Amino acid sequence: MKLYDCHPAPNPRRVRIFIAEKGLTIETQQVDFMGREQLTEAYQAMNPLCDIPVLELDDGSHISQVNGICRYLEAAFPEPNLYGRDAKEQGLIAMWDNWVANNGIASVADGFRNFSKGLADHAVTGVRPYAQIPALAERGRQRTEDFFEDLDKYLGEREFVACDRFSTADISAFIALEFAQRIKLEPKEDQLNIKRWHQAVSARPSTQA
To answer: Is 152 in contact with 194 (CB distance < 8 Å)?
Structure first.
């Protein structure tokens, strides 16, 4: 297998952490995001969605999208389990992972992609050019701050995001907080539950790799 990766980007890091949690070693190849390598014909032949990362399987086929890649790896390498051992865990992890993606990662992405000079004509992932909308950048920043507030409240009742153990929902939430630094946002001083949780996740070997 080979992972088409991009070290500065948040979604490839989500997959790298997942791979590290699984204890796997997978060859990587860097994709030049700012050079628009993901929009070339060669890359589109491999991944018509033009996003990063992409997992190339041993039979030459390709899987993109974070959940697509991680679901494949979970099925191929079941332990340690990160998507849920039973129906209840699977439902809870899917619920919280989706909430984090929509309210955390997507909010930061709006703040970043609608502001960064390097993405002036590519405010949305993909081959089509979409202009930046400054109002979306501001809304993204506000939604990110709201995400911090809500997550801090939820983490006051639990050690991990979705259930009583580390899961893919924790990976997504960790990346949301790390990605938010790109738009110069971080939890407030009194949001101690997030700080406690983030410190614990930051100490895991998978997030330090």
So the answer is: yes
Q: What is the pLDDT of residue 36?
A: 87
Q: Encoding tokens for residue 103?
A: 């309210």
Query: Could you tell me if 54 and 3 are in contact, meaning their C-beta atoms sit under 8 angstroms apart?
Result: yes
The sign of the CA dihedral 130, 133, 139, 145 is: positive
* Alpha-carbon span 93 to 56, nearest angstrom: 26
Residue in 209, 194, 109 with CA at minimum distance from that of residue 154: 194
Peptide linkage before 134 cis (omega within 30 of 0)? no
pLDDT at 39: 87
Amino acid 1 reads: M
What are the per-10-residue average pLDDT scores of the chain (209 residues)?
A: 94 98 97 88 92 96 96 98 97 98 97 90 85 96 98 96 97 98 97 98 94
Altogether, the residues listed in the chain come to a count of: 209
Supply angle C-alpha 122, 124, 130, rounded to 5.
Answer: 55
How many other C-beta atoms lie within 10 A of the C-beta of residue 128?
Answer: 9
Question: What is the predicted pLDDT for the residue at 209?
Answer: 78
Tell me, what's the pLDDT at 11?
A: 96
Separation between Cα atoms, residue 3 and residue 63, nearest integer Å: 10
Q: Are 174 and 17 in contact (CB under 8 A)?
A: yes
Spatial distance between the Cα atoms of 135 and 188, rounded to a whole number of angstroms: 23
